[in-house]
Specification:
By secondary structure, the protein is mainly beta. The protein contains 5 helices and 13 strands.
């Protein structure tokens, strides 16, 4: 399936209206409990910088602040390079809807150099993706989950609420459904494609909302292209649940133990 016809590409599609200004609209297929799936919002913001005529290099980091829910109405995205240095470029991007800001982002792009490299962490232990069954979600889950193939290794949720788990770690294989070649945009969305950690810890539904999310990209476009459409190994955990907020730290791994991205977010919860 050509990338331009994939649901994901339709969801992050932007039309240029003038220099650094674009229009877009949420795709119903990526609807979450309130508004669109946050990963698609993150990818849309990143896409605005990628489409800009002045873009330099490739993304190395992205921070998104979710200020308000995005509705089904059209929205405007404004992207501008705040500063361009010899090898790095800093971006400010906003989504406006109904004359208000609903999401903001900062991004850093860079020209990568061939240098000394070292990996200090190891991927989680997991059987090959082909040996793990695809999760069959029951009816009633948000629509965006249908756009991802997930093969759970540990840390599932049965929503029984009968017994609180001792931890919140989830490890799984995941990729776009149907499969789509990996790039920085789809990787940005995958950084948010985990059920909230409090669901795993409490084994029950709790009203939540991601406040802010940061993704660090450890792979250039050539390395991502080499992953093709293969499933990625991902793991997520929380550090603390306290006074209505919890954090989430996650890693996304590719073939041959390549660390593709690390991501962190802060999530509001209410009981």
């Amino acid at each position: 399936m050509p990338a331009t016809t994939h649901n994901f590409d339709q969801a992050i599609k932007l039309a240029t209206t003038s220099d650094g200004r674009y229009t877009g609209q949420a795709l119903p297929a990526y609807t979450n409990l309130v508004g669109p799936f946050g990963g698609v919002t993150a990818a849309t913001l990143l896409n605005a910088a990628c489409l800009h005529a002045e873009v330099l290099g490739e993304p190395v980091s992205l921070t998104v602040n979710f200020a308000a829910p995005i509705t089904d109405a059209p929205f405007e995205v404004i992207a501008r390079p705040a500063r361009t240095n010899r090898s790095t470029q800093h971006w400010i991007v906003e989504i406006h809807q109904d004359s208000a800001v609903v999401a903001t982002a900062t991004a850093v792009f860079a020209r990568r150099r061939d240098t000394w490299s070292s990996l200090e962490i190891t991927p989680p232990t997991a059987p090959p993706a082909a040996e793990v069954a695809v999760v069959d979600l029951p009816a009633g889950f948000p629509a965006w989950l249908d756009n991802y193939e997930m093969r759970l290794v540990e840390g599932g949720v049965d929503f029984s609420g009968k017994q609180e788990e001792g931890g919140s770690v989830t490890t799984l294989w995941m990729r776009d459904a149907p499969p789509r070649p990996l790039d920085h945009l789809s990787l940005a969305a995958l950084c948010d494609a985990f059920l909230p950690r409090i669901f795993v810890r409490r084994q029950s539904f709790v009203p939540i909302g991601t406040v802010t999310m940061t993704a660090y990209f450890h792979a250039d476009s050539a390395l991502l292209a080499g992953q093709g459409t293969e499933p990625l190994l991902a793991t997520a955990r929380a550090s603390r649940f306290h006074d209505g907020y919890f954090d989430q730290t996650a890693e996304i791994w590719g073939a041959n133990g390549e660390l593709l991205a690390t991501t962190h977010q802060l999530v509001y919860y209410r009981e």
